[in-house]
Amino acid sequence: MLLDLRAETLSIEGFNGDSIEAYFAQPLTTDPVGGVVVIHHLPGYDKATKEITRRFASEGYLAICPNLYSREAPGASPDDAAATARANGGVPDERLVGDVGGAAAFLRSRDISNGKVASIGYCSGGRQSVLAACSLNLDAAVDCYGAFVVMDTPEESPFRFRSLVDKLPNLSCPLLGLFGAEDQYPSPEQTDILEAKLKELGKTFEFHTYENAGHAFFAPDRPSYRTEAANEGWAEIWKFFGTYLTN
Amino acid sequence: MCTYQTEHLALRASAKGPTGWIGVTDASVYFDHPTHFRAEHALSIDFLNPSKGPSARVALEMDVVSARALAQGILDALASVPAGLLAAG
Predict the structure, then answer these.
(1) Distance CA A53, CA B57 (A)
(2) Helices (DSSP H) in chain A: which residue ranges?
């Protein structure tokens, strides 16, 4: 059953004590619930990501999406903010970790929080969800088609994303990976490498790679949307969070 | 897929958007997921003036055929201009 919810834009403390914008949705319940930090995709803090945030609340989780482009583009439309962030080479890893850490602390401080918090990210946010889980104490993490987890961005790229392989020993929680078989960033070969590394390290993880799906198969407002993969992926998310975010 | 590739250019130009004309100092050119154009990928150009903030932006998204035609059109237009005018411009 979907719960009623309340959603609002507010400010939270992020990296370096900076005040950053965030979109917060909470289920209208008095029962203790887990929390989810939603890490938006490269195209930014947009309507689609806010819908995802509300979806988590309607399913019974506190949910917050920090605007990772708050600093370089305060008040700008999501596409303009994303263009600026792209021109600047993306979000620095250290800043991302600070912002997600601030968002997680905000969720844990809510009256109805059961103290458990997960991260989930899409596209560039998928890599950032893994990065957050390797840098912060989280209870679960979901990587939806994040690239550059096991390899660096090419030298000619303005983005400076480094492989997270050397951080994987610090992975603090179970990881759910949801990928498209037709994606190249990350390719199935790259997610196989990640799987092998996690196995070698004895980490708890679960990967699903969907046929007939490429990058961004969860995005209902884009031609990349794939109904079957998205529905199956959502089902895996509810099962995963049901296991690791409840008391 | 997200390609994460971007070509940066310094420009001396003007562009007109919904709020009027802006001076353009920079451009980003990339082939990636578009915001508005109905395709999984598009050639995108952001005409920017970072000193005026993120909203000082005029954006184009187009398919590959259009992008090549546009690039060739620019080169053809320049090629047909008398050399003296190009030097003065």
Answers:
(1) 28
(2) 47-58, 78-87, 93-108, 124-135, 188-201, 227-244
Contact yes or no for A110/A88 (Cβ under 8 A): no
Q: Say how far apart CA A6 and CA A25 lie, in whole Å.
A: 6
Of all residues in chain B, the one with the smallest CA distance to A159 is B4
Contact list in A for residue B45 (CB cut-off 8 A) is none
Would the CB atoms of B40 and A214 count as touching at under 8 Å?
yes
Q: Are A99 and A19 in contact (CB under 8 A)?
A: no
Token representation of residue A229: 């993969």
Q: With 70 as the cut, is the pLDDT of residue B88 above it?
A: no
Is residue B83's pLDDT more than 90?
Answer: no
Kindly report, residue by residue over A90-122, the tens digit of the pLDDT.
999 999 999 999 999 999 999 999 999 999 999
Domain boundaries, chain B: 7-81
Find the domain containing A183 and state its range.
5-244
What local confidence, expressed as pLDDT, does residue B86 receive? 83
Degrees to nearest 5, angle at CA B31 with B27 and B36: 85
Q: What per-residue confidence (pLDDT) applies to B89?
A: 62
CA distance A26 to chain B (A): 28
pLDDT of the residue at A188: 97
Q: Report the gap between the CA of A86 and the closest CA in chain B (Å).
A: 8
Contact at CB, A147 and B38, closer than 8 angstroms: no
Structure tokens at A142: 């979901």
Q: How far apart are CA A193 and CA A177, in angstroms?
A: 13
Residue A210 and residue A229: Cα distance in Å, rounded?
A: 6
CATH number of the domain encompassing residue A56? 3.40.50.1820
pLDDT, one tens digit per residue, over A127-147 is 999 999 999 999 999 999 999
Instruction: Say which of B4, B39, B57 has its CB closest to residue A159.
Output: B4
Query: What are the pLDDT digits (tens) for A190-213?
Result: 999 999 999 999 999 999 999 999
| Candidates A73, A123, A157; nearest CB to B54 | A73
Tell me whether A73 touches chain B (CB under 8 Å): yes
